[in-house]
Design goal:
Blueprint: E1 2-15, H1 16-22, H2 26-32, E2 39-44, H3 52-67, E3 72-77, H4 85-94, E4 99-102, H5 104-107, H6 126-133, H7 136-142, E5 150-162, E6 180-183, H8 187-195, E7 199-202, H9 221-237, H10 245-264, H11 274-283, H12 287-300, H13 329-352, E8 357-362, H14 371-386, E9 389-394, H15 398-403, H16 407-412, E10 416-419, H17 424-434, H18 438-441, E11 451-456, E12 459-464, H19 472-477, H20 481-492
Parallel strand pairs: 2-3, 2-4, 6-7, 8-9
Antiparallel strand pairs: 1-4, 1-5, 10-11, 11-12
Length: about 500
């Protein structure tokens, strides 16, 4: 069921001062500007040239040119060429640019009434929405930010918003009662969900640009962080053979600029995001910089911008679980790499506090599948041991694990291997790889739960570990469907 709202997703705004200048008498306009000497208005935004809003702006520019006989021209800078949305708004207030496109939440900073466009059920239907948005009252409202140096010229809509649920349609607020609904980390949205009877779950963000002053052994944390940023960009660009030396140099040049504010004053709000790296790359003249920035664009301004946010989760808890299974195919590889870097951040902080860090990686073979994540995983694996980290990889896909060229490095830097029951094909591969005798192999051949082999250096020890199934800990850990159902029924009773 669609919420009865077509959210004001974007708004084109015109600097009030410039608007007043353009609104002078027609005589002044005729004598001041001509097709040979036109008034050029700069319009900056962060969307791609393929976006429907950009296409609409292009048509707007064409009509302005036509209806003024070329005396007024609109020059559009898409793709965040002149900065982020917030920076464009600041440029607008300063008179540097004439127009920009911003989202309704961005305008809410200046007038809280713009938060209304994120609320549900405020319009009866689409016809009612357009009736209100095109009314004189709304035009008056659009002028309400005049004292802040700009006014709203027009609006674009990205359509109605919907509630997506697993089991039932949401037709009335009563249908939301008790449901956990994912929302953006905005007070207006969490308050709205609470008032409707739902349970708001704010979207969790982790910032791939996070760094701390103990990130490296020396006094140059950026040196080590650059290894991660390069791996990240290689993955984004699909550079299987690595990046060009010129591309690496451009990124290396940008990083000190991007992190300068945070390193001078290491407060959380000064931490840069991917958007800052993107903006810095756009400012460089080399074609390599523009190529990297274009590859980053979809992760900064596009549909995959989930990692272009400040971290909004508590990462100093004693136990943290990073769950990336709901990330789409396009983001999962990126997510694996970013999580590893976040863990490294925690290892460096804990080391400075003289604490160890235990790191458990489920489905470990996935990290070794891609060249970029595999190389960084091995590097992290080696570093951890020197920094008080204890990494443990967990997998059931032995063939995929051993297919990686990096597995030898992982084995060489692992203190022990804990092996349970194995399929026939996997047993033969492991016997050859780890030099397991036929007798020892019997402990992982059709073995029962809790039976297997423990490899410690050159020593191989068979073991049997019968876990007490009556313990509450077992009920929390079991993944057997029949047992999970039984324990759930017992808990509900």
């Amino acid at each position: 069921m669609f919420k009865k709202i077509a959210a004001l997703a974007t708004a084109a705004v015109l600097c009030a001062g410039l608007m007043a200048g353009c609104g002078a008498s027609s005589t002044t306009a005729d004598t001041s500007y001509s097709a040979e000497n036109p008034l050029v208005l700069t319009l900056a935004h962060g969307l791609s040239e393929a976006h429907t809003v950009h296409i609409a702006m292009t048509q707007f520019a064409e009509e302005v040119n036509e209806k003024t006989d070329g005396r007024v021209q609109v020059k559009i800078f898409p793709n965040g060429q002149l900065g982020s949305e917030n920076e464009n708004l600041e440029q607008l207030q300063a008179g540097v640019i004439a127009m920009t496109k911003v989202s309704a939440p961005g305008l809410a900073t200046y007038n809280e009434a713009y938060n209304a466009f994120g609320l549900p059920y405020i319009f009866n239907d689409t016809e009612d929405f357009y009736h209100v948005m095109d009314s004189q009252q709304m035009q008056d409202f659009f002028l309400s930010t005049g004292d802040d140096g700009f006014v709203t010229l027009t609006y674009y809509t990205s359509g109605a918003r919907s509630f997506y649920t697993k089991d039932k349609a949401i037709r009335t607020p009563a249908d939301l009662k008790g449901l956990k609904i994912r929302v953006q980390d905005m007070k207006s949205q969490t308050d709205m969900m609470n008032y409707l009877g739902g349970i708001p779950v704010a979207m969790s963000y982790i910032n791939p640009m996070d760094i701390n002053l103990n990130y490296a052994d020396d006094d140059n944390p950026l040196g080590m962080k650059s290894d991660f940023i390069l791996s990240l960009c290689e993955l984004i660009m699909g550079a299987r053979d690595g990046m060009e030396p010129e591309e690496k140099s451009v990124i290396d040049r940008c990083l000190p600029l991007v992190y300068q504010k945070y390193l001078n004053d290491p407060k959380p709000e000064n931490m840069p995001t991917l958007g800052d790296l993107y903006d810095c790359l756009r400012e460089q003249k080399e074609r390599q910089a523009q190529r990297i920035a274009t590859a980053l664009e979809i992760y900064v301004n596009g549909s995959l911008r989930v990692f272009n946010h400040q971290t909004n989760v508590e990462l100093d808890n004693r136990i943290i679980c990073f769950d990336i299974k709901e990330l789409g195919k396009q983001l999962k590889k990126l997510g694996m790499l970013i999580v590893q870097d976040q863990v490294w951040n925690r290892v460096t902080i804990n080391r400075n506090s003289k604490k160890n860090t235990r790191y458990y990686i489920d489905e470990f073979h996935l990290l070794l599948k891609e060249e970029q994540t595999a190389a960084y995983s091995v590097e992290i694996w080696k570093r951890f041991r020197k920094w008080g980290g204890v990494p443990t990889g967990i997998t059931q896909n032995i063939k995929d694990l051993l297919a990686s060229r990096e597995i030898e490095n992982i084995f060489e830097n692992s203190d022990f291997i804990y092996m349970l029951n194995q399929a026939s094909g996997d047993r033969q591969i492991l016997a050859k790889q780890l030099n397991i005798s036929p007798f020892q192999l019997s402990y992982v051949t059709n073995s029962n739960e809790g039976e297997g082999l423990l490899f410690y250096g050159n020593t191989i020890i068979p073991f049997k570990d019968k876990f007490d199934t009556s313990l509450k800990l077992y009920s929390l850990m079991t993944t057997k469907p029949n047992e999970m159902g039984k324990y759930k029924e017992k808990k509900e009773a």
